Structures are given as C-alpha cells and as structure tokens.
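REQUEST FORM: STRUCTURE PREDICTION
Request ID: SP-0412
Submitted by: Lab K.M.
Chain count: 1
Length (residues): 277
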Amino acid sequence: MLISVVCPVYCHTEEHKEYLREALESVADQTYRVMELVVVDDGSPIDIMPIIESVKGLPSTRILRNTANLGHAQSRNVGIQAAEGDAIAFLDHDDIWLPEKLEAQAAILKKEPEVAMTFCDSQVFWQNNTCSDADQCSSRQTRKLYFDQSKIPERPTLAWLMTHRNCVITVSSVLVRKHALLDIGMFDSRYSTCDDYDAWLKIRSRWQVYHLPRVYVRYRLHKHNTNYAVDHLKDNRLITELMINLCKQLGPIDRFRVLPTLARKTGGRIYWSLRRR
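STATUS: Completed
RESULT:
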C-alpha cells in the first residue's frame, strides 16, 4: 500500500525552519518505506527548498506551491488531489512523528478493510520542552488541548466523537484512505480552524474509525501556531449545522447523549455573536 504523506507548509520565521527540518527528518526516519512525500508550500516568505534538500533519506518528494496563501484546509486539499497513494497521512510542518507511526497504522488498514481511518495518540509539548501532563503545564493553550487519551474507545462511535472536543484527533495522528477523503469532499475550507474535526465526523458517519492507543506523534505548541484569523462564530455555526444533520443517523439514546453538546454549541454561538458586536 502506497502512503502519500501530505505536508502543508507556511514557513515565515527562523523557528519554523527548524520545525520543518525536524518534521521532515521524522518522515525520513519512518520504518515504513512504501510512501511518497507531497509538500504544499502555502506561500511561505522563506525559501523551503534548502531545508528539504538538507534532509537525507526522504522518499520520492514533490513540491507544490500555492500562488497565494490559501490556508491549511485548502493546502491539504491540494495535497490530497495530487497524492498517488491509496492512503494519506498528514503531517503539519511543526509536528514530529515517531519512526513506527506509519508502519503501525498501515498494518491496521491492511487488516481491517472496513476501517477508513486510524489515528494514534499524541504528546503535546511546548516548543522544545516536553509536556505530557496537563497539570505540569502553565500554558493555557496546552491545558485546553489536553485530553486523557486512555479514555478513547478502540472504535469510537459517531455519537462519541460528536460529544468530545476536536483536539481528541490531531491532524498529524491520522492515516486515512484516499477514497474516503474524496467521498466527503475533502476538507471544508469555509472553516478557519476546525475543518479537520468536520472531516473526521463525516468520515465516521460513513465508515469505521480505529484508535491506536500508542503515542506516535509529538504535537508542538509555539507562539506561531495560528497563522490564520479564527472566526469562532462561523466555525460554530458550520459545525453545529453538521452535527444537527448527523443526528438523523443516530438512534434515540445517542441523540439524547448529543443534546448537551448541541446546547453548548448554541450557547457558544450566542457568546461569539456578543463578542463580535
């Protein structure tokens, strides 16, 4: 099975150059070798070619350049459309994979034909300092992202995903069959920040999703994590509309379980409307 590694890049600081190098080195170190690398340069003001050329052991690599800064969702879609693999793994340019990541996940997709997507656990860390326990982190952003991954079911249901935060599945932790991404219309670029959560919900509404309870990803937090303006009100409206539509697939008990989440989303819409005013 050929895996396409899609890596959207927006490199605009000296720190980003080092983060990108570490991310690419983690691709080169993968024990699974049947793969290609698709780098999507989203209008980086820094030339990333010297960084890519400095990393030894990379698989066959293609570099696509957006003519304008399109954002993370559309950049991932550019990579998906260009990918030649049967499955796609996403790696944000500031995250790091452990060497066995792709091998472990490829084995699941080969063994479980009904599974369209598998995701592993992620370790959140602040820049260069490890942070795996929320109680030890002073960063408010880190605490917000922290989730006890031991509570994630092996095969989470749609209702379970709808009632948990989008940080449960980080983009860099996913390996997904390409046909599933194409079938849902890829990532919805109308979102400013939770287009990935939208995609995972749509995929789970049609296929099985498998959780691999091993840490194979290091998710880096840093002062430049968010490069695009976040429109909380629009994101809230879009994800709430999606959840309401997906509720039609749920049984009565699961619909009841999702009601508190929908109520919070509605309250959030009022809050962000007031904030905007």
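NOTES: The chain has two domains: 3-230, 231-277.
Reviewed by: T.R.
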